[in-house]
Structures are given as structure tokens and as C-alpha cells.
Design brief:
Elements (H helix, E strand, L loop, with lengths): L4 E2 L4 H5 L10 E6 L5 E5 H17 L8 E4 L4 H13 L3 E4 L5 H11 L3 E5 L12 E6 L2 E6 L10 E2 L4 E7 L7 E6 H14 L7 E4 L6 H12 L3 E4 L2 H4 L2 H10 L4 E4 L5 H6 L12 E4 L6 H10 L4 E6 L8 E4 L12 E3 L6 E5 L12 E7 L6 E2 L3 H7 E3 L9 E11 L5 E6 L3 E4 L2 E4 H8 L5 E11 L2 E10 L8 H11 L8 E5 L12 H9 L7 E3 L4
Parallel strand pairs: 1-9, 4-5, 4-6, 6-7, 12-13, 12-14, 14-15, 15-16, 28-29
Antiparallel strand pairs: 2-3, 7-8, 10-11, 11-21, 16-17, 18-24, 19-20, 20-23, 22-23, 23-24, 25-26, 27-28, 29-30
């Protein structure tokens, strides 16, 4: 049977659109092992994707067969994502740093036809897909072909799966978020409408390929005819190397989680003055501590800073410019209104729509760019893809995000916290995010996190803060007194500790479980500089 023909709403067709208009423009600029920059044009990227597609097509894979791609973000990896999209083969991206146990869990779940690894990566002895291959700029080499299958499909449809991204699940097992071509293409077209990036941009992607923020960067850059600039892990590990790379690559827009900027802001903020071409910073994944954000604005006076909000299940929901300057006393950033073609609604505990400014509710997202469901988990899918609370009779599903927000006077939203970060203290509901926001208003505090910690048969509120310098000290008594003035008594932490850094997950979010363990440990651990007499 001939190669399946992709529909117009195919990720490959959208991202390779610029190849017909500006074929010689750089699509990807990346550094080699020696740090030397190399460019790959849209023409060459499309050619490499077609070469990969020819090899995959020769294996007889059918539309819907999964391909696990183990790689860092690179031109070759992007070409393989495109080849899979062209043929209707859902790609599942994993990082080379993914532990064997987690990768084995993913492979057992999706049962991929092929496990393709970037050149230079060691073979995973414990992880065996049906077929295996390695790929690089020179081509895709099949090491062990998958079993031959019957090809039943003639076309790649807009409703077919484009990719599966695995996130941490509440059960302890990775949870696969399934996105169709229609969903991701619709989302990226909304980004074009909102003009998040332009054809003249060089977009730096800093997240590992296994996270949707990396796919976001690839999609936004290529769909707008811009240039993608992947930043190597080696360069991210040092503020000086990171800033030097961004400068030398001529980066105009940086995508990353807020913690990306923390080391340079704390240790060598003047380096940021070297980024003369940088015109915008897009952050997402977690709240940006307001003191750090003020400092970033100060060091990048000409840059637009954009607060991205949303979940993997919808790629994102809104992109809101951070006011410049941030108003004095501002504690929370606005997440504004939904991006083009989507809408956010607040729903209260009784299921009613929140319409009065100042009230809080859970965010429900209406969008044609929602995920299809969780891989092989209909129960979890049904819990978040729910009937429209405004009028369920039409049968449309909306995304119940689990995020809480406050309604503003113009209908804009301010993120408050997660439903699952809402804890009970002696019958009182407490938003951990509100405590954290209060602590970041203390002089010298750049970031904060709170947790409910078990102690003596009960649970108490405790918090950790990061200070603005390695020699800074925390006046814990003053911190607690400030909290007592600003918060109800039941929301005041029992103790506040200064730590060198907040524990983070591999995608840059606060690791709440590890934070709780650290706060529960005896005082005097290596990361604690000062603590209360709790």
C-alpha cells in the first residue's frame, strides 16, 4: 500500500509551510559538541525529514503505530518528529536522562513499534521495544526492524494522534497525554494569530525534549517561520555559558521555566546586559516569584516578558504580558484571558459560574485544542474532560484544570493556586500559594514554597525561602511577624527556613514531596542557613 496521505491539519504540513516560502532561511541553529554553531535551513530540515520518513515507511508501519524518540532537542530530533507526523506515527519523546525504570514503564504502556535513539547514546539494555534505530544528521539507521504488520490506513487524519507526552501521575506511574494533529495545529495557529513570535525571531528552547514546553518552542518557532535555537544542557548548567550562548546565537526570544533565570539573577545579573538582541522572554510551568521578576525586568529593560499559563492537556491556555514596571505591592501575576480561539470560565464549589469580581473559582477551559485523553486511562480522562458547566446539554467537553483563580474587574484572571495545593488546617482551607506570595514580599526573599508537614501526630505549616545572596541571613522572627500581620492566624507558618535553593523536579517546578521531606527533617541540614525555634 502507498504511503498514507496527511490531511491539511497535519503537524508536518504546518511546521514545514515556511520551507516553500523561505527555503534557505535557518530553521535550526545549534551548537556541536565543541560549542561551534551550525545552521540547518528549512530546505535541509525538510529534506532530512523526508529521508527519515522514507526509512520509516519502508518498515511498513501503520498510522497510529507509536515511535519512542530518545534525544535532546536538535535539528535531527525535530526532523524525526516531522517524519513521524507526516506518516501518522505518534511520537513519544523521552530524555536521555530518563531513568531506565521510568522508560520501561512508558515502553510497556505504549508498546512502540520502534525505539529511536540519537547517535552517541548508549543502548538501554533493560528497555526493548519491538524495533530499534539510531538517528543523526546522516540518516536513520534501523538496528532491529519491528515485526511486519498489516497496513490498514490510507490517510493520516486530523483526529489521529500526533504525540503522547508523559507527565507525573498521582498514582506514581507516568501519565500519557494524547494530543491529536487537529489539537496541536489549532493551538499553533492561535499562537500565530496572537503573534507570540515572528519570522525574524530566533527562539531559544531550554526544556528537555520530553516536556511539552520543548514541543511548544519547536512548534511556535517553525510555524511562524522563525529560527529554533536549542540550548544544550551543558550551557544551561552555568549562567556565564548560558548567557554567552544566547548572545552568540543572536537569540531574540527565550522560552523557559522561571527557575532558568534564578542562578544568573542571584550570582551574576550583569551578564544579562550582554543580551542586546533579546526582545522577549516567555515563561511557563510555574509562578515567577515577583522579586525575581522585578530584577529580570531591571536587567532586561527592553524585553517583553510574557506569563504563559496552561496545562499539558491543552499545551497552554493564555499568554499575558507582565506589566512594566510591576505595580508596587503586586503579589500575583495576571493570567489575563485565554489565547485566541479559547475561553476560560471560573466555576465555584457548587458548580455555578463565578461572575463577581474578587471571587475565586476553578478554571474550566473551552478550546478546540484540548487533548484527546490519557493513554489507556479512561477513568482519569473522564475526571478532567467534563460536561460544560454553563450548559451540558450540547455534549461538548471542557477541561477541568484543577487550577484556582480570582476574577478581575475586566474579566481577567489571577492565578491563586492548585486545588491539590489547597490544604486543611484545623478545618480551615489554606492556599499554599497565598502564603508563598506573602513571603516573597519580604526584603531579600526571591522565592518561597510552603508545605503541610507531619509533626507529633499532627500536621503543621512550614515554609522555605531562597534569599538574594549566599551570605544573606533570614530574620525568621521578623518573617513570622510579617506573616502574622498579613495573614489569618491559621495561615501563619510554624517556622520559616532559608535554603540555598528550592528542590525542583526535572522540568523546573517545585518538588513538593521533596520539600516536605526537607522541612520535616531536623534543623541543621546542609541546605538550611537559619531556622526558627519552632
Amino acid at each position: 500500500m502507498e504511503r498514507p496521505d496527511p490531511s491539511g491539519d497535519n503537524l508536518y504540513r504546518l511546521l514545514m509551510g515556511p520551507a516553500a516560502v523561505t527555503p534557505d532561511k535557518p530553521a535550526v541553529v545549534e551548537a556541536d559538541a565543541d560549542g561551534v554553531l551550525h545552521e540547518m535551513s528549512y530546505r535541509r530540515l525538510e529534506g532530512l525529514a523526508q529521508e527519515y520518513a522514507a526509512v520509516l515507511d519502508g518498515l511498513g508501519l501503520d498510522v497510529g503505530d507509536r515511535v519512542v524518540i530518545e534525544a535532546d532537542t536538535s535539528a535531527a530530533a525535530v526532523a524525526l518528529l516531522l517524519a513521524c507526523s507526516l506518516l501518522g506515527l505518534p511520537f513519544v519523546t523521552v530524555s536521555p536522562q530518563t531513568p531506565d525504570t521510568r522508560l520501561l514503564s512508558i515502553v510497556r504502556s505504549v508498546e512502540p513499534a520502534l525505539h529511536a535513539r540519537a547517535e552517541g547514546l548508549a543502548r538501554r539494555e533493560r528497555v526493548e521495544a519491538q524495533g530499534s534505530a539510531r538517528f543523526g544528521p546522516g540518516g536513520l539507521v534501523v538496528e532491529r526492524p519491528p515485526a511486519r504488520r498489516v497496513r490498514r490506513r490510507r490517510s493520516v487524519l486530523a483526529t489521529d494522534t500526533a504525540y503522547i507526552v508523559f507527565t507525573s501521575g498521582s498514582t506514581g506511574r507516568p501519565k500519557g497525554v494524547v494530543m491529536s494533529h487537529r489539537a496541536i495545529v489549532t493551538f499553533l495557529r492561535a499562537m500565530l494569530q496572537d503573534a507570540l513570535a515572528g519570522s525574524g525571531d530566533r527562539v531559544a528552547s531550554t526544556s528537555p525534549l520530553q516536556f511539552d514546553f520543548a514541543l511548544f518552542g519547536i512548534g511556535v518557532a517553525l510555524s511562524s517561520g522563525a529560527t529554533l535555537v536549542p540550548v544544550r544542557r551543558e550551557d544551561l548548567s552555568s549562567p556565564r555559558r548560558m548567557i554567552g550562548f544566547l548572545r552568540d546565537a543572536g537569540v531574540t526570544q527565550v522560552h523557559g521555566v522561571p527557575s532558568l533565570w534564578r542562578p544568573v539573577l542571584r550570582h551574576d545579573a550583569d551578564l544579562l546586559k550582554e543580551l542586546e538582541r533579546l526582545r522577549s522572554v516567555v515563561f511557563a510551568g510555574e509562578e515567577f516569584p515577583v522579586p525575581e521578576l522585578r530584577r529580570l525586568q531591571e536587567m532586561l529593560p527592553g524585553a517583553r516578558i510574557v506569563n504563559g499559563y496552561g496545562a499539558t492537556e491543552s499545551m497552554a491556555a493564555s499568554f499575558t504580558d507582565v506589566p512594566r514596571p510591576l505595580p508596587a505591592g503586586q503579589e500575583r501575576l495576571s493570567i489575563g484571558h485565554a489565547h485566541a480561539g479559547a475561553e476560560m470560565t471560573l466555576v465555584d464549589e457548587r458548580g455555578g459560574v463565578v461572575t463577581r469580581p474578587g471571587l475565586t473559582g476553578e478554571i474550566y477551559l473551552r478550546s478546540p485544542a484540548l487533548f484527546t485523553g490519557y493513554w489507556n486511562d479512561p477513568e482519569a480522562t473522564a475526571a478532567v474532560l467534563v460536561d460544560d458547566p454553563v450548559d451540558p446539554r450540547h455534549g461538548h467537553k471542557v477541561l477541568r484544570t484543577g487550577d484556582l483563580a480570582r476574577l478581575g474587574p475586566e474579566g481577567e484572571l489571577s492565578f491563586v493556586g492548585r486545588c491539590d495545593f489547597q490544604v486543611q488546617i484545623h478545618g480551615n482551607r489554606v492556599e499554599l500559594g497565598e502564603i508563598e506570595g506573602t513571603l516573597t514580599r519580604l526584603p531579600g526573599v526571591t522565592a518561597a514554597a510552603a508545605a503541610l508537614v507531619p509533626r507529633a501526630g499532627d500536621h503543621v505549616l512550614m515554609a522555605a525561602v531562597v534569599l538574594d545572596g549566599p551570605t544573606a541571613e533570614l530574620d525568621a522572627g521578623a518573617a513570622l511577624a510579617f506573616c502574622a500581620r498579613e495573614l489569618p492566624a491559621y495561615m501563619v507558618p510554624r517556622s520559616v527556613r532559608a535554603v540555598a535553593e528550592l528542590p525542583l523536579t526535572e522540568n523546573g517546578k517545585v518538588d513538593r514531596a521533596l520539600l516536605t521531606q526537607k522541612l520535616a527533617s531536623p534543623r541543621g541540614t546542609s541546605d538550611v542557613r537559619h531556622a526558627t525555634n519552632a
